[in-house]
Amino acid sequence: MTGRLVLENLKHRPMRTLLSVMLMGVPVTLILALVGLTQGLLQDSQRRQQNTGADIIIRGSTASGVVNFSGASIPEKVVNKIEEQPHVQLAVGVINHSIDPPLVITGVDLPKFDRMSGGFVYKSGGPFKDADDILIDEAYASQTHKNVGDTVTLLNHPWRVAGIIGEGKLARLAVQLKVLQDLDAATGKVGQIYVKVDDPANIATVMQELNGLETGDKIDTMADYVAMWTPDKIHGVKEFTWVIMVLGAVIGFLVVGLSMYMAVLQRTREIGILKSLGASQGFILTIIEAEAMLLGVGGTVLGILMSFGACWLVRMFVPASIPMIIVQSWWPWACLITLVGAGLGALYPGLNAARQDPIEALAYE
Amino acid sequence: MSSGPIIETRDLRKVYRVGKVDVPALRGVDLTVIAGEFLSIVGPSGSGKSTLFHIIGGLTPPTDGQVFVAGQNLASMTDSDRTRLRKRSVGFVFQKFNLLPNLTARHNIAVARFIAGNTGALDGQFEEVLQLLGVAQRLDHKPAALSGGEQQRVAIARAIVNHPAILLADEPTGNLDSENSKAVLEVLRGLNERLGQTILMITHNPEAAAYGHRTVHMRDGRII
Is residue A332 assigned to a domain? Predict the structure, then answer.
């Protein structure tokens, strides 16, 4: 019966209900979009690294944090030295240049990289032929509306799109290693080295060998390196997520507080009727709180739907810059945050309603 | 009619505080109502009828004096005790019907049962009462789709669904035309005669008051 009473109350004022649900859905969307953006960036980067086919990654000694690449601080001759180590099948040095964060252009020795990774999947066009050739992935091609043969200007340099590659391997934008080294004034240097071992069972042995070279660079197995990519490692994201979560709870609190306050005023007489029937203060408070919870659940559902909309829009317009994803594991958290805000917001109007004098309430016009 | 009193007030007083002024609404009311009696209370506005109604119904405590309803002394009751009294021992019928507008007639009745802790099916006797009230076919309509007379009869059904010791009716025909007024008064008399329901009815209308077994007159917070 309580459920019916709550449901009928919500149905009786559909516009108030709809507006409350919509307003509560906004912070849910904000939270889910932020988490989807962060996780999307991380997953995209993890996948890109894993699909290189490397077992070990070496980053220059100047690399700060996990998600940052170093400048090109490793002499290229180190690549050759690594390849001479027992059980090392292949070592590929690359250089990265950030163009429009989080977008990075990567210089790579393509034949060698193809041997390590199995090669890029070409959706159209093919590998580099000339020094000014560039490979772009599908997402970047879609975002910039570029096709094979078009010119892309990056680093104040015109590039001809030689091929459009599938997503998720090494880089969104790839050019010849030597060309990017020269443009970056880093001739003979690389930023990181991908190492492929002859047998995964030998990874630990090779790690020991590489550490023994004492180059001062950061050496990790690919598994360990990828595992380090968590939201905590992106500076400020954790704090920003907290801010949005608190904001979501506060918005839920204010929206429900205002909505339920108005509802209690409008229903003063009905509260008097319930009290005349013998409804306790707890019963009245339960109805108000249950109504707020239902609004919260509605807001969460709408917020989740709107996050799908946001994700679709992002993927439509900036798929390369913002690889947003839907993070379902955050739905319960978003719901909890909204319900906490809604529950607290309904407390004051609910207590007001519960404490109303039945005679005054019945006389309310 | 049974012989024992079901309502008894002794030197009942109520003073309302309006701003900084004390306004006496009841100035020592002594009243005894026998179980099964249909009592009409008449008097001009401000005579204290409604205050007496509210105190007997457990909606507000008295300032002084004693009031017994179904053997319980309301003067010493807490707010929670009075809530329990309204739940089980008293049924209200108001001038403005006071049905919950969001719910159908059936659910208005069900809410009263739910609050009183009754969740099972309606008993056969109550089904007969619904027939007597003439609302059995209108239970799935919301108040807005019911006439005033129908709304008041649903309100009566809601008031007696938990078999209260007393039914308090405050100007039950005040918002009805003469035809519907007569129908509602006949219903009240029928409930009193068939079920032995004790009824206390406040009214301005002498014709309505005549439906009761006895009429008491109030003026200036006293029974005269």
Answer: yes
